[in-house]
# Entry
Amino acid sequence: MGRANKHRATSNNKNSLPQTPKGLKIAPENVNEEFSRELAAHGDIISKREMNKRPKK
# Structure
């Protein structure tokens, strides 16, 4: 009856989780600036998409 010890539900996920390199981490004081850049870029994409949807004369 030693089967219970062999099939224990342990997590092997700790060793396989991806890590962010220190050079790619965003400093806490720059997080708002990063979000504003991403939102501005998203707004540019949306406006370009809207311009392309307009009928051409």
